[in-house]
Amino acid sequence: MKALILAAGKGSRIGDYCKEENKCLLKVRGKPLIENSLQCTAGLDLSEILIVVGHRAEKIIKTYGYSYKGKSIKYVFQLEQRGLVYAIECARETLNGEDFMLMLGDEIMINPRHSEMIKKYYNEKLFSLCGVSLVEDKNLIKKTYAVTQRKNGRILRLIEKPRVPINNIMGTGNCIFQNKILSYLDKTPVNPKRGEKELVDLIQCAINDGHKVKSFPICDKYFNINCQDDFQEASYYFFHS
Which ranges in the chain belong to alpha helices (H)? Predict the structure, then answer.
């Protein structure tokens, strides 16, 4: 299994914060955002770390080089800003047939449980395992995606940025996939509003074909830094914690 960290975005919604910097190198609690994902790979049984880069790629490469705590890093270049599914597609050849753990270069997790997540994925022979966070404020789910599932955690449906979340399960960008998920890249529909393919629709294609996809509570609290409010909220949280 490889780690696949997506870090190619321009961060246009962050505004002035990203004028001279890649969003994934913005610092929260004194370290770049992407380092939160890199630290999560430490101690895991992963063969390699792949980082998808694009905007200001040279700064990420210069900062982290070609290894992190003993694990090899390879860089995949994403030339167009066309969403997460396109970023995964760019990494298809470099994944070289291996299963992979997807991570985002602009997220922070409090008390992440990736080791337990990998064990569940293998023990239950899953097609995919989606990391989720159980939230008190359902409005947070409007920023990511909603999950409807059976009592055993098997996912029935994923909804991108729902207007009215029906439960307290918030989807995150951390998912484990069999390499076979790549066969659904071409089948994933383009979202008519955003003009790009969405991660939830990629996973939903596999669910609709009967593949076993479950959820896993990956952390106690989750931040995905997409706009200035997200950045300020995360900074405030760590300043007062």
Answer: 33-41, 57-64, 83-90, 92-95, 114-123, 199-208, 228-240
Classify domain 2-240 at the CATH topology level.
Spore Coat Polysaccharide Biosynthesis Protein SpsA; Chain A (3.90.550)
Sequence-distant (6+) residues with CB within 8 A of 68 are: 38, 41, 42, 49
138, 165 in Cβ contact below 8 A? Answer: yes
Residue 132 DSSP SS3: strand
Q: How do the pLDDT tens digits run along the chain, 241 residues long? A: 999 999 997 755 555 555 567 889 999 988 999 999 999 999 899 999 999 999 889 999 999 999 999 999 999 999 888 889 999 999 999 999 999 999 999 999 999 999 999 999 999 999 999 999 999 999 999 999 999 999 999 999 999 999 999 999 999 999 999 999 999 999 999 998 889 999 999 999 999 999 999 999 999 999 999 888 888 888 888 877 6
User: What whole-number distance in Å separates Cα of residue 155 and Cα of residue 72?
Assistant: 33
Q: How many residues does the chain have?
A: 241
- Coil vs helix vs strand at 102: strand
CA–CA–CA angle 74, 76, 81 (5° rounding): 150
CA angle, 3 as apex, 119 and 96 as ends, to 5°?
105
| Residues 109 and 40 sit within 8 Å (Cβ to Cβ) | yes
Phi and psi at 137, nearest 5°, equal -95, 105
Show me where the domains of the chain are located.
Answer: 2-240
